[in-house]
Design a protein that fits this description.
This is Phenol hydroxylase. Its cofactor is [2Fe-2S] cluster. InterPro entries: Cbr1-like_FAD-bd_dom, FAD-bd_FR_type, Flavoprot_Pyr_Nucl_cyt_Rdtase, FNR_nucleotide-bd, MRET, OxRdtase_FAD/NAD-bd, Riboflavin_synthase-like_b-brl. The chain is an alpha/beta fold. It folds into two domains: 100 residues, Elongation Factor Tu (Ef-tu), domain 3, CATH 2.40.30.10; 134 residues, Nucleotide-binding domain of ferredoxin-NADP reductase (FNR) module (Rossmann fold). The strands form two sheets. A six-stranded antiparallel beta sheet has the order 4-3-6-1-2-5, covered by helices on one side. It has a six-stranded parallel beta sheet with strand order 10-9-8-7-11-12, sandwiched between helices. The longest helix is centred in the last third of the chain and has 13 residues. The radius of gyration is 18 Å and the shape is globular. The two termini are 28 Å apart.
Length: 255
């Protein structure tokens, strides 16, 4: 089956963290890029020697409707020193074009799910799909009364991607949505906006047991660092969650 490529035009960029950029594109061919939250696009380019390569990026776009032509296509990109993809994105001027394909992937909320709670666990840019899922989660909170726990691992407060958005969503939905930032190196300053009761000091896998995963009630999503994904997967299996109730996507940093 042939892969359909399309041009994406850069329309805005902002830094989420010292080494992570939030990039906003539009399709430049007049077509919509509709997708299911949790899916990703691939960006195609060439190394300096002409060899073709590609990178995958989860879509961060928040939408609660079918996307039409000209609507935003958002991704988060980690900059890696000496990386070819980093050079591509850092050197891309406003209105510059990249070659993309997609969307791909099945790391999505499933319409047939009947669970009472979602455990969303992520590190780094692995939290991106959860941002895109927020409208779906809000609808499920209203329709089914689900609860959600988002455990998000970062090294320091400045690396907590979309932290303000997740905190605001948690404040809005009370007991139905808990946002639990886990900082491995540095905690927020006392009295700061990021310092609240659900902040933890350590790695996300250290705190998963605190939320007592249970096969009768929970579906878990794991996205980000492969070591974290593997460790949490083993923990969840130990709590009796069957493999179909643990959905995984590993992010491997590549140059």
């Amino acid at each position: 089956m042939a892969i359909t490529h399309f041009p994406l035009k850069l329309v805005a960029r902002r830094m989420l963290a010292p080494t992570v950029a939030h990039l906003t594109f539009q399709r430049d061919d007049g077509q919509p890029l509709d997708f299911i939250p949790g899916q990703f696009v691939q960006v195609h380019f060439h190394y300096a020697d002409g060899t073709a390569t590609k990178r995958s990026y989860s879509l961060a776009t928040i939408h609660d409707h079918a996307l039409g032509p000209g609507e935003a296509v958002e991704i988060a990109v980690s900059y890696v020193a000496g990386g070819a993809a980093t050079a591509l994105f850092e050197g891309l001027p406003e209105h510059g074009l990249i070659d993309a394909s997609g969307p791909y992937g099945r790391f999505c909320l499933m319409p047939a799910d009947t669970n009472q709670r979602y455990l969303l666990i992520g590190t780094g840019t692995g939290v991106t799909p959860y941002r895109a899922m927020l409208p779906q989660l809000e609808r499920l909170i209203v329709e089914r009364g689900i609860k959600v726990v988002l455990l998000f691992g970062a090294r320091t407060p400045v690396e907590l991607l979309y932290g303000d958005e997740f905190r605001a969503f948690a404040d809005k939905h009370g007991e139905h949505f808990r946002f639990v930032p886990c900082f491995s190196r540095e905690l927020p300053a006392p009295g700061s906006a990021q310092a609240h009761a659900d902040v933890r000091h350590g790695y996300v896998q250290q705190f998963l047991e605190e939320f007592a995963p249970h096969a009768d009630t929970d579906i878990a999503y794991l996205c980000g660092n492969p070591n974290m994904v593997d460790a949490c997967f083993e923990t969840l299996k130990g709590f009796g969650l069957p493999v179909p109730q643990v959905r995984r996507e590993k992010y491997v940093s590549s140059k």
